[in-house]
Amino acid sequence: MPFTLNGIGTRYYGASNRSAHVDVCQKCGRSATISSYDTREWFCIIYIPLIPIAKYRILDDCSRCRRHHRLSLKQFSEELQKTLSPLRDAIKRSPRDPQPYIELIRTLVGWKMRADAQRELEAATRLFPQDVELTILDAQLAVDGGDWNRALSMYERAYKTEPQNPTAAYGYGWLLNQMERHEQAISILQSAAAQQRSKSGALYLLGSAQMKLSRWNDALNSYQQLFTLEPKYTADKNLLRQIRECKQHLGYQLTEAERRAGRRWWPFGRSTKLKPMKPQGATALVRPSLAIAGLILVAISLFSFGFYEWDRRANMEVYFDNGLDRAVRLDLDGKHLNLGRNNRTKEELKDGPHAVIVRDVAGKEIERLTFHLDEMSIFQSPFHDRFFVYNVGGQRVYRRGTHGFARNRENASYSEELIGMQRFFEMRDIDYPFQQPPDSISVDANSSSAVLKTSFNAAEDIDLPTFAMIRLRQGKTDEAKTAIEHAVASAPCDTRTRRTQVYFASTAGSLDAASDTAHRWITDCAQNNLEAHRAYQDINNENERQEALRDEYGRLLASSPNSAEAHYLYGRVENDPADAAAQYQEAIRLDPKLIWPRVALGHAYQMMERYDDAMREFAAALDMEGRDDSTAIYYAMAAIGKGSPFSALAKVDDVRKSHPRELGAIRARWLLAVAMSDWDKAAALQKNLASLDSPEAMWWNTTKLLRFKEDPTVDATIDAGLRDRNLQQLALNARIERLLEKGEFAAAAEMIAKSGKALQPSSAALLEAYAGGGLLLQGDAQSAEKLLADAEKLVVTAPKSRERKVAAAVIAGLRGSQSVDSVMAAAREADATAHAWFVAGVRAAVAHDSLGKRALLAHCIRASSDLEFPYLEVRALLLRSGT
User: Fold this and answer.
1) The 3-state secondary structure of 769-794, one letter per residue
2) I need a surface site. Which of 177, 184, 281, 359 has the fewest CB within 10 A?
C-alpha cells in the first residue's frame, strides 16, 4: 500500500472508470462513500508525483479511513474478462431470457463495477421492462448511488408488480423507513414479515418504524417475534435498549438484561475519556531560508508537471470495442487479446505505427488495420484530453452527447451527435468516456448559464440499419446507403437488415430498384430465402405487378409442387381468399412447422369473416417458436372483428407474461383495451409503449384514444399537433378524419384542398373519396360528384402503390363506373377490404336499400379491426343513421 513519510514515498494519482456507492465501511464501521477505480501509483517527493510505478484497480476505498484492497490492473482485467465471458455467451445463447442479464449485472456489482452494471442494467431493462428482478436491481443500484427518489419509484413498481417478492417488499419497506415515511413503511414491512426469507430483517425494521410513531405495544410485539425467530438477538444490546424503551412507556417490568442494557457505564456502556487540550503554540516567524525551500518546491512541481504531461503524451489510450455478435481475438503488435461479444478493452500505446488483426475464435481472419498514433505538441497537450477508438468491423454506432447542467431546469440543455461506420478515430475533450454522465453536478448558485460537459458512449439502442434510417430521414442519403451496405456485408441474410435495404431502395430510388434489391436477397440467401421472397412480393404488390407475380409464382409452384414454401408464396398472390386458404392448408400439410402459412391461413379466414377459424390458426401460430411479433396483433384483430375482444384477453396476456418485451403483444393488448372501452388499461399500456415507439406513433395513438373516449380535449390536441413541424402531417390526417367522423364532409374536402403537398396524393384522394361517399349518403349527389372528380385528378398524380390502386378503385366504385365486385378484387390484393365494403354500402344507399346499406357498412367496421381509418368514421355514419 502507498506510504509517505514527510511527503516522500508513494501515492496514488488519477482515478478513472470509477464506481462508487454509499455504504458502511467494513474496516472502520462508519457510513462513507465506498469507491473502486483504476489508478496509478507514483513515487513522490513533497507529495509531488515524479516516477510512475504501476497501475492498480482499487477496490472498496473508504472516503473516511482510506483503507482499501487493490489488484494490479492487468490481473484485474484478465480475471474480470474470464468471469464475464461465460455470462455474455449465455446471453447470446438465450437473448430472450432475462436471467443471464441479471447474473451479469450482479457479477459486475460483485466486482465493484457499478458504472458498468448500471449500463448493462439499462440495456437489459429496455429488453425486459416488466421484469421484477431487474427493477429491484435498478432500485438497489440507485440506493447505492444515494438516489433515493429513483430507488423509491423502482421499489414501488417492483412491489406493485409482484407483492409476494420478499426482496421487493423488504427493500421497499427499508427505504420508506430510511426516508422516515414510517406509516407507509409499516404496511409494506408487515407484508415482508409474512414471508420467511425476509422475516427477521422485516421484523426489526417494523419495530423501529412503530417506535417512531409511538406504537410501543406493536413495536414490542415485533421485537419479541424477532427473539422467537432468532434467539441470537437476545444478546444484542441495541435491540435490548429499544425493548427497554418500549416497556418503560408501557409500564412493563424490565428483565435484568434490559436493565443492564440501559446503563451507560462498563460493561454495557461506553467510557469516553476527554482528551486534554493542547496549548496553542505561538506563531512562528518565517525564516529567510524558507524562500530557498519554496524555490526548490516550485522546481520540483514544474518537473513533476512536465513528467506527467510527458507520460500522458507518450502513452495514448486506445479502446478496442467489439460490436460483433460473437467473441473475437485481437493480435495487437504481436500481443494477443481476447474480446468478448459486445465488450471492450483499453490499451495504452506509444507514438508510431501499430498493426491489429481481428480473428474469430476459430482463428479465421475477419479484418486487419494498420494505424499511426502521433503525439500531441507540447503546446496542445496541457489543454486537450484525447483517446482513440478501434471499432471492430465498424459495427458500433456511438453517441457524443453535450450536457448543459444548470441550477434552473429551464436553462439545462442536451444535444447529441451520432458517429457511425468509422473503424478507427480520435475523440478529444470528453468528460465521461464510455460512462453515463451524472444526473447533476455542482454549479455556481449565482450563475444562470449552463455548464457544458461531454459524454461519449456506444449507442446501444442504434444499430447500423437504424443508423441508416436516421441518416435517410435527415436527408443524408449517401451516408445512409453506405451504412446499410455495410450492415448487409456483415449480415447478408439478416431479415431486418435486408428489409431495411429494400425499403431504402424504394425510398431513395424506385420501386423497380427495390424489386431488384429484394431479388438479390433471394439469390444471396438461396438456402433460406422465404423472407426474401416475401419482401419481393410486397414490393411488387406496391408496384402494381400482381398479375406478373401470379404468373411468376405459379411457375415456381409448378416446378416444386411438394414445396410447402412454394404453396405458401403462391397463396400470398392469389386474389380470392378461399383459393389462398387452400394453398396455405397444403403448405401446412407438407410442413407443419412452417409458421407463416398458418398466420396467412388465419388472415384468409378473417377476410372471409370466419373469425373463430382465424383465431384458432393465429393461436396455434402464437405457440410456435420463432413466430413474428405481429401474430399477437392479428389474433387480437380477429377477436375485435368477431365482436368479442374479451375472448382474446387470456391468450394475449399469456404471451405478454412469457415475452414482456414483445412490442406486438403490448400493442395487441392495447387494441383489446380500446375495443372494450377500458380506458385506464389503454392509458397504462401506452406508458409501456412510450420507450418502444417513436414520438410520432405515440402522438397518433394518444390522439386515437382521445377520439375513442370522445374526450373534449381531442381537437385541442390535434391543433397543437398542427403547430408542430414533426407532427404536422399526422395531425392533418387526424383533423380530416375527425371532420369525416363528425359528418362535416364539405369541411374535410376543403381542408384536403388547402393541404397542398402536405398529404400524399393517394392518401388525400382516398380521404376525399370518403367525403364524397358521405355526401352521397346524405343525398347530395351533385356535390359528391364534384369531390369525386377532384379525387380522381389527385389519384392520377400519385406514384404507383397499392394505396393508389385502392383509391382509384374506391373513386370509380363510388361514381358507379366500376362494379363493387371489381372494387372488392382490387381491395383484396391490397389487404384493404374495408374500403370495398364502404363502397358497397354507399352504392346500396344510392339504390335506396337501407337495410343493405347498414349491413354492408357493418362489414366495413368489422374489416377495420385494427381500429384505424375508416373504423370510427363509418361507425359514426351508422350511429347517425339510427343503427
Assistant:
1) HHHHHHHHHCCCHHHHHHHHHHHHHH
2) 281
